[in-house]
């Protein structure tokens, strides 16, 4: 059962709030974000192949990954610095698509257990400007999240 | 000659823009942010003693420093992750006062040369909420910046 992605932009502010529930405990959903071998298997858009080129998932660490559409030239690279990595609870990290250099946003993801072995991510993405937020939305940010989280549902179901 | 700090909050947005000019080239002002031995000598509030406890000033690095008021107990600790460190040009980093845990902002500082060996910082601080921005302003954020930059003027004059 997919519970869907709830997304809300704060009026006039460069902020997107989102909530997504999962049929698995917070610890498992957190690990799917922290372990690069798991991360590349679900991060959206799922029609792309993802390869990690740097991964040091700790407070004060950093990450970088590259996505390619199979059969096409060109790639999309993303990188960030990890401010907080608190296992099972909280990730606060920066995010940059290298195709829009120096446009850096801040992602805050709280992992919260729910009754019955379920959990949710309560997230906030803070962008450096309203223009940057608009272009990220136009570039399919929420669709990428939705397809990624559905792939994560499948992975969590497999255990 | 101090040229003063220009600060502007964007109406209804958790963003503070600032501009500060210096009587020194951008490379020197950047170094004063990147070299921990220089940084502790000017960062505000200048009535506090500053000690660096972690410092890895590169893209993907991190920092932490602690401030103490002489003759008093207690300390104020600050830490962040460095997204971009491009010498002489750009710093993008996160910032957290550990007294307000998990309230993390994003600082973007562009270092720009001006004619006559002068330069300016064009900065933007992006906060995770309007409430967090208000409390940082109430806690004297701009006064800390002003006194710090005046101390930096003195250091740059000494060469």
Report what the structure shows.
- Chains A, B: Residues 24-156 form the Activator of Hsp90 ATPase homologue 1/2-like C-terminal domain.
- 2 copies of one chain form a homodimer.
- With 159 residues, chain A is of the alpha+beta class.
- Chain A has one domain (5-158): Alpha-D-Glucose-1,6-Bisphosphate, Chain A, domain 4 (2-Layer Sandwich).
- Helices cover 27% and strands 43% of the residues of chain A.
- In chain A, helix 1 packs across helix 2 (36-42).
- The mean pLDDT of chain A is 95.
- The interface between A and B is medium-sized, with 32 and 32 residues.
Count of folded domains of chain A: 1
CATH homologous group name of chain A: START domain
Class derived from helix and strand content of chain A: alpha+beta
**What is the correct CATH architecture of chain A?**
2-Layer Sandwich
Which descriptor suits the 3D outline of chain A?
A: globular
Question: Greatest contact pair?
Answer: A-B, 32 and 32 residues
Count of separate DSSP helical elements of chain A: 4
Strand order in space, largest sheet of chain A: 1-2-8-7-6-5-4-3
Taking all residues together, what is the mean pLDDT of chain A?
95
N-to-C order of helices and strands of chain A:
EEHHEEEEEEHH
Q: How many beta-strand runs of chain A?
A: 8
Report the radius of gyration of chain A as a whole number of Å. 15 Å
Q: What is the distance, rounded to the nearest whole angstrom, between the alpha carbons of the first and last residues of chain A?
A: 15 Å
Oligomer: homodimer
Provide the CATH top-level class of chain A. Answer: Alpha Beta
Q: What is the helical fraction of chain A, as a range of percent?
A: 25-40%
- Contiguous uncertain segments of 5+ residues of chain A: none
| Main beta-sheet annotation of chain A | 8 strands, antiparallel
Strand content of chain A: 35-45%
Family (chains A, B): Belongs to the AHA1 family.
InterPro entries (chains A, B): ASHA1/2-like_C, START-like_dom_sf
Pfam families (chains A, B): AHSA1
């Amino acid at each position: 059962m997919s519970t869907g992605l709830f997304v809300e932009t704060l009026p006039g502010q460069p902020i997107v709030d989102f909530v997504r529930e999962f049929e698995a405990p917070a610890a498992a959903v957190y690990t799917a974000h922290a372990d690069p071998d798991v991360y590349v298997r679900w991060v959206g858009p799922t029609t792309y192949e993802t390869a990690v080129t740097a991964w040091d998932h700790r407070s004060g660490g950093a990450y970088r990954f590259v996505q390619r559409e199979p059969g096409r030239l060109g790639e999309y690279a993303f990188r960030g610095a990890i401010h907080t990595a608190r296992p099972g609870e909280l990730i606060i990290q920066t995010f940059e698509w290298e195709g829009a250099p120096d446009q850096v946003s801040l992602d805050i993801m709280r992992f919260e257990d729910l009754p019955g072995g379920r959990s949710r991510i309560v997230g906030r993405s803070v962008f450096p400007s309203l223009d940057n937020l608009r272009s990220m939305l136009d570039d399919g940010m929420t669709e990428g999240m939705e397809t990624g989280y559905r792939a994560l549902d499948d992975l969590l179901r497999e255990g």
